[in-house]
Amino acid sequence: MEVFGIIGMSLGTMGFVFGIICLNQMGKLIKTLKEKKILEEDYKNVDTF
User: Fold this and answer.
1) Which residues of the chain fall below pLDDT 70?
2) How many CA atoms lie within 13 A of 25 on its CB side?
3) Domain limits, the chain
4) 3-class DSSP assignment, residue 38
5) Is the pTM for the entire model greater than 0.90?
6) What confidence score (pLDDT) does residue 41 get?
């Protein structure tokens, strides 16, 4: 039964890392869209904390 704990911790860690990478990529995307004047300069992303 310890195997399920190990699998759960592994999947949880992978999910956490994936989430951090996605937040970083969203920041880059928002910055690029602001530079290209697609988004307004005063745009605030309400989804990021």
Assistant:
1) 46-49
2) 6
3) 1-42
4) coil
5) no
6) 84
